[in-house]
Design goal:
alpha+beta; three-stranded antiparallel beta sheet; flat
Length: 180
C-alpha cells in the first residue's frame, strides 16, 4: 500500500520491477517497488529479495538424502516435506512441537493429542475460557516431565492424548514445551 498526504491512497500507482520470480527455479530474485504522487514526488524505492529454494536442494543443505523426504529425520513429529513447507529445521525436533497438536471434540469431551513426545524437556498443557487468558488466566491441567516420558514405551510416546470435559463452555488450549 502507498498513501500521500495530499493525494490519499496511491496504492494503484505502485510500479513493481526487478526480476521475474520463477517459483520452479531455485535462486535469489530482487523485486523493486516505486511510487510517485500526482505532483511527481517519488518515494524512496523499496527492494525485497525473494529466495526460491527447491525441496531437493533444501534437503541436501541439511545433508538429508532425497529418499528420506517423507520421513521425519529429527523424530520431532513432522515429515521432512512439512517442515520444508513451514520453514522449520528438519534436524531440530523441538521446532515441530507447535505444529503437531491435534484437538478432537466428541460429546462434550476435548481429546488433546500430543506430538511425538521427546524426553528432553517437559510438556505443559494449559486451558483458559478466554483466548488471551487475561480475563481468566491460563490454568495448567497437565504436566509431563522428561522422566515420565522416558518411562513410556515408544508406542505410548507417539500416541499420547488426554481427555478434558468441556462442561458446555468454550475453551482454549495451549501446549508449552520447556527444554531440560
Amino acid at each position: 500500500t502507498a498513501s500521500d498526504d495530499v493525494d490519499g491512497d496511491i496504492s494503484g500507482s505502485v510500479v513493481t520491477g526487478g526480476d521475474a520470480v520463477d517459483p520452479a527455479t531455485a535462486g535469489s530474485y530482487l523485486i523493486t517497488y516505486d511510487v510517485s504522487d500526482a505532483a511527481g514526488n517519488a518515494a524512496v524505492q523499496i527492494t525485497r529479495e525473494v529466495i526460491v529454494e527447491n525441496f531437493a536442494d533444501w534437503l541436501a543443505s541439511y545433508e538429508i538424502p532425497f529418499g528420506d523426504s517423507g520421513n521425519d529425520y529429527d523424530n520431532g513429529g513432522l515429515a521432512n516435506w512439512f517442515e520444508y513447507y513451514l520453514g522449520l529445521d528438519p534436524t531440530e525436533p523441538l521446532d515441530d512441537l507447535g505444529f503437531a497438536v491435534r484437538l478432537e471434540l466428541k460429546e462434550g469431551v476435548m481429546r488433546v493429542h500430543f506430538p511425538n513426545l521427546v524426553s528432553t524437556g517437559s510438556y505443559h498443557l494449559e486451558t483458559s475460557s478466554e483466548l488471551d487468558g487475561t480475563l481468566n488466566p491460563w490454568s495448567r491441567v497437565l504436566t509431563l516431565t522428561g522422566a515420565q516420558i522416558e518411562a513410556m514405551d515408544k508406542a505410548a510416546r507417539s500416541s499420547f492424548y488426554v481427555e478434558i470435559s468441556m462442561g458446555g463452555t468454550t475453551g482454549f488450549y495451549r501446549l508449552l514445551f520447556e527444554p531440560n
